[in-house]
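Lay summary. Proteins are chains of building blocks that fold into shapes, and those shapes determine what they do. In this project we predict the shape from the chain. Here is one chain we studied, written as its sequence of building blocks.
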Amino acid sequence: MEMEPSREKLLELAFYKMPYGKYKGRYLVELPLPYLVWFRQKGFPRGKLGEYLNTMLDIKDNGLEPIIWKIQKEFPRE
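And here is the predicted shape, written in a compact code that computers can read:
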């Protein structure tokens, strides 16, 4: 299965904020790796948040955070 991220989804991921908990209001890229690993062990939430947390874990595991930071810098949200 071939996966190609859409521009809109990538922009949304870059600016998606944690809606609750200790890190409420922080961008997902700012979440510490151990926190994301903990979510994987306990089970990601259902829906978009769970999908984005899982994706962010993959991004961080592969050292790709600079891509997200670049998106945030080049396409700022108001």
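What the prediction tells us: The chain has a mean pLDDT of 92.
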